[in-house]
Amino acid sequence: MKIAVLSTNGNLYSTRRLIEAGQARGHEMSVVNHKRCYMNIMSNSPEVHYKGTVLPRPDAIIPRIGASVSFYGTAVVRQFEMMGVYSVNESVAITRSRDKLRASQLLARKGIGLPVTGFANSPDDTDDLLATVGGAPVVIKLLEGTQGVGVVLAETRKAAESVIEAFRGLGANFMVQEFVKEADGADIRCFVVGDKVVASMMRKGKEGEFRSNLHRGGTATLIKITPEERATAVRSAAVMGLNVAGVDLLRSKRGPVVMEVNSSPGLEGIENATGKDVAGLIIEFIEKNARTGRTRTRGKG
């Protein structure tokens, strides 16, 4: 098969591992920088142009779309879908997962455990908004943030009001969530491929840091998850319509709660922590499922 990895940097660990895993299984692999793609949108013969020429049609694509280029990146994925190319994660599923508010509403509609979450537009609603999530301490998140950027722990009511005022002053969209104290700065990353959790790790924030992202100095260790955690991760990915996803869970008093469903989860941390060939499992999934014109997004909304 001809498989293209949509990535802006071929030297990134995740991109390299996918290329290596595909080549090891006999596939023709390539890296396509989606920011350098441009599109000829025609009804009968849509095309993707790349570096001054028409890009030969691959059999499948693996989108590795960064949050900062979600709009253009998903437009490129849609163009490939119009051409009948199989995408391991479809454009609408990526878009769903990138909008934290929309994702939370979709997960809540399916009864999946979430931290108590509030969202408001008017400054007049701040008092009730904080009361809705149980008061300080609270976690305030930019809807467009990723890798822990734009996530603030406000330990007091005054601090929460100040952060909310600052975000509103910038015209930023944000949501307010309860702080799950019992998680103790740790979360669980479940890596879902298809309808299975193929690997899982516990991420722990560095001393004094409530965010557990590895990019922010967190550490990762192998962990055995419970059947409830496994089912929650698989259901969450399915609600988003994602075939490959990193589902981040917290262990709360009322069971697992979902913090985020990531459509482009990194491979370095999970492979190093678990010793599993996750890249190879993604390629294996494509082998079993890629068909021309086989683009059907699961879930609704």
Overview of this protein structure:
The chain has 301 residues and is of the alpha+beta class. The protein has three domains: 2-92, Rossmann fold (3-Layer(aba) Sandwich), CATH 3.40.50.20; 117-179, Dna Ligase, domain 1; 182-288, ATP-grasp fold, B domain (D-amino Acid Aminotransferase, Chain A, domain 1, 2-Layer Sandwich). It is built from nine helices and 16 strands. The chain has helices at 13-24, 70-82, 91-98, 100-109, 126-132, 157-169, 227-240, 268-274, 278-289; strands spanning 2-6, 28-32, 37-40, 47-50, 53-54, 60-63, 86-87, 117-118, 138-142, 151-154, 174-178, 186-193, 196-204, 219-222, 244-252, 255-262. Strands 14-13-12-15-16 form a five-stranded antiparallel beta sheet, sandwiched between helices. The protein has a four-stranded parallel beta sheet with strand order 2-1-6-7, sandwiched between helices. It is globular, with a radius of gyration of 20 Å. The two termini are 32 Å apart. The mean pLDDT is 89.
Number of strands: 16
Residue runs with pLDDT of under 50 for 5 or more positions: none
Query: Would you identify the CATH H-level superfamily of the largest domain?
Result: ATP-grasp fold, B domain
Strand content: 25-35%
Structural shape: globular
> Helical segment tally?
9
- The largest beta-sheet arranges its strands as 14-13-12-15-16
Report Rg: 20 Å
**Count of structural domains:** 3
Which architecture of the largest domain per CATH? 2-Layer Sandwich
Q: State the distance separating the first and last CA atoms.
A: 32 Å
The share of residues in helices is: 25-40%
Q: What is the residue-mean pLDDT, rounded to a whole number?
A: 89
- Order of helices and strands, N to C? EHEEEEEHEHHEHEEHEEEEHEEHH
Structural class: alpha+beta
CATH C-level name of the largest domain: Alpha Beta
